[in-house]
């Protein structure tokens, strides 16, 4: 399906900053009668064409953000973290822009490879990889597997064919607390990922890997958290990882050629919030690597970074239709036709969004409301205490920006509502990337009594 606008229908440019659209895709323009266009496509018309809820993804915004990373890190491997959002078109865009891919399961891996993504440019992650995950990765020849636990070493080595070697990295816990919420801080000792520096688990795993002739240890990996908006934690992580690399050389005579510092780069979900400065990150990390390796006389390893949210998050907008407005005492609840099944993040992490009324101009004064979903949970809240015109009513459209990451990838079948479609917009045209999940789709999985 497609939706096109003529040149006369595309609104003239305006300043996103002066229109409250600073966190929206850069192609966003305020349109006529309160509408908003993204990449020249009317969101109100897209809602009518594709139904609601609908995820709208600006293709050029995704590509530009890929290029921003390639420009900032020209000497590094930039690997897109597919867990943020993955479909065949997304894998194709990332490949065309020169990025690698980071996957967390056999499912993500197979989708990428069957789309034509080169397996040698894929990194496999996971704190508890299944036998199928490891077998598929070895069989397809992924470039690197990140080993997350000591028990994984022997299991992985047993899968590698005789005469072959699988390139691996060890995920190390550097003991750094960073991230926008306790549930996404992965660089500390009190969580499930990686091998500890503090208790010696990382050093012990290095020795075990070096004793496996079918495994080739090419480097170290760390990931300190998600939604990080300052550079300092990354610099600290690099310093500790270089220190470990120096100890590995002293103990084993091995100089590791690669260092992966993960992703977790923060973005703004509401106007005025901070986002990570990517060029500054590149400059500071590059300087720390150069100076740190120089002090211990190590060759500077090739760097890998894994941005996910920062590539696709700001490129997406989710459009809902209002189903009900309920006023109880001092509270106003605006219920929409989606909710925690298509965006569980507010319930999981307390993420705050900035919905906007689109499709009509309202002269009414704004009023603080709570935007809620349609699901049978009191915690099914999409946005709390947000200003919307007090005449908002059933049938209105609400658009939620910064919806490109961890929406569809975390979507569920709760209440058998069905997951929304993903529609790509570019040059005034919209096309379906992922179709809406139908009742027939869900019924086919239920094989009966």
Counting DSSP H or I runs of 4 or more residues, the number of helices is: 12
| Estimated radius of gyration | 23 Å
Q: Biggest β-sheet: count, sense, barrel? A: 10 strands, mixed
Task: Kindly estimate the percentage of residues that lie in beta strands according to DSSP.
Answer: 15-25%
pLDDT averaged over residues: 92
- Helix-and-strand structural type: alpha/beta
Q: Poorly predicted ranges (pLDDT <50, ≥5 residues)? A: 1-18
Overall description:
- The protein has helices spanning 43-50, 59-72, 88-96, 106-115, 131-140, 150-159, 201-210, 232-252, 278-296, 309-312, 345-349, 439-445; strands spanning 2-4, 29-30, 36-38, 41-42, 54-58, 77-81, 100-103, 122-124, 144-147, 166-173, 195-196, 215-221, 258-260, 302-305, 316-328, 331-336, 356-358, 366-372, 381-389, 397-401, 422-426, 429-434.
- With 449 residues, the protein is an alpha/beta fold.
In summary, what is this structure?
With 449 residues, the protein is of the alpha/beta class. The chain contains 12 helices and 22 strands.
Pick out its properties.
449 residues; alpha/beta; 10-stranded mixed β-sheet; 12 helices; 22 strands; 28% helix; disordered N terminus
Helices, strands, pairings?
Blueprint: E1 2-4, E2 29-30, E3 36-38, E4 41-42, H1 43-50, E5 54-58, H2 59-72, E6 77-81, H3 88-96, E7 100-103, H4 106-115, E8 122-124, H5 131-140, E9 144-147, H6 150-159, E10 166-173, E11 195-196, H7 201-210, E12 215-221, H8 232-252, E13 258-260, H9 278-296, E14 302-305, H10 309-312, E15 316-328, E16 331-336, H11 345-349, E17 356-358, E18 366-372, E19 381-389, E20 397-401, E21 422-426, E22 429-434, H12 439-445
Parallel strand pairs: 5-21, 6-7, 6-14, 7-8, 8-9, 9-10, 10-11, 10-12, 12-13, 13-14, 16-18
Antiparallel strand pairs: 1-22, 2-3, 3-4, 5-15, 15-16, 15-20, 17-20, 18-19, 21-22
Helix pairs in contact: 2-9, 4-5, 8-9
């Amino acid at each position: 399906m497609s939706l096109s606008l003529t040149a006369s229908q595309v609104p003239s440019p305006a300043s996103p900053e002066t229109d409250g659209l600073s966190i929206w895709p850069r192609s966003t323009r305020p349109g006529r009668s309160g509408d908003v266009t993204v990449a020249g496509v009317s969101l109100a018309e897209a809602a009518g064409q594709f139904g609601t809820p609908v995820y709208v993804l600006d293709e050029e915004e995704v590509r530009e953000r890929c290029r921003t990373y390639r420009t900032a890190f020209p000497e590094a491997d930039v690997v897109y973290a597919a867990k943020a959002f993955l479909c065949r078109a997304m894998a194709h865009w990332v490949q065309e822009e020169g990025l690698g891919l980071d996957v967390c399961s056999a499912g993500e891996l197979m989708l990428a490879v069957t789309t034509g993504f080169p397996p040698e440019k894929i990194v496999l992650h996971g704190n508890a990889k299944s036998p199928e995950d490891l077998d598929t990765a070895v069989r397809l020849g992924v470039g690197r597997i990140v080993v997350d636990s000591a028990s994984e070493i022997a299991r992985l080595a047993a899968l590698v064919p005789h005469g072959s070697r699988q390139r691996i990295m060890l995920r190390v816990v550097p003991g750094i607390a960073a991230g926008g919420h306790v549930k996404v801080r992965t660089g500390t000792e009190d969580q499930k990922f990686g091998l500890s520096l503090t208790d010696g688990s990382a050093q012990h795993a290095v020795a075990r890997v070096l004793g496996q002739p079918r495994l080739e240890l090419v480097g170290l990996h760390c990931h300190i958290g998600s939604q990080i908006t300052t550079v300092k934690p990354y610099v600290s992580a690099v310093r500790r990882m270089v220190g470990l690399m120096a100890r590995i050389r002293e103990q084993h005579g091995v100089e590791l050629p690669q260092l992966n510092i993960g992703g977790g780069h923060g973005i703004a979900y509401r106007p005025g919030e901070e986002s990570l400065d990517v060029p500054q990150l590149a400059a500071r990390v590059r300087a720390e690597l150069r100076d740190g390796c120089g002090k211990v006389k190590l060759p500077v390893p090739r760097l890998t970074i894994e941005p996910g949210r920062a590539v696709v998050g700001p490129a997406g907008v989710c459009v809902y239709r209002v189903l009900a407005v309920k006023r109880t005492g001092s509270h106003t609840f605006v219920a929409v036709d989606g909710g925690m099944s298509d965006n569980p993040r507010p319930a999981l992490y307390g993420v705050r969004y900035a919905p906007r009324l689109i499709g009509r101009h309202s002269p009414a004064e704004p009023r603080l409301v709570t935007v809620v979903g349609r699901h049978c949970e009191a915690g099914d809240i999409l946005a709390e205490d947000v200003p919307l015109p007090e005449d908002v009513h059933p049938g209105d459209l609400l658009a939620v920006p910064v919806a490109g990451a961890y929406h569809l990838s975390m979507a569920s079948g709760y209440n058998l509502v069905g997951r929304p479609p993903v529609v790509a917009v570019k040059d005034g045209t919209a096309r379906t990337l992922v179709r809406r999940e139908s009742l027939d789709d869900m019924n086919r999985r239920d094989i009966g009594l």
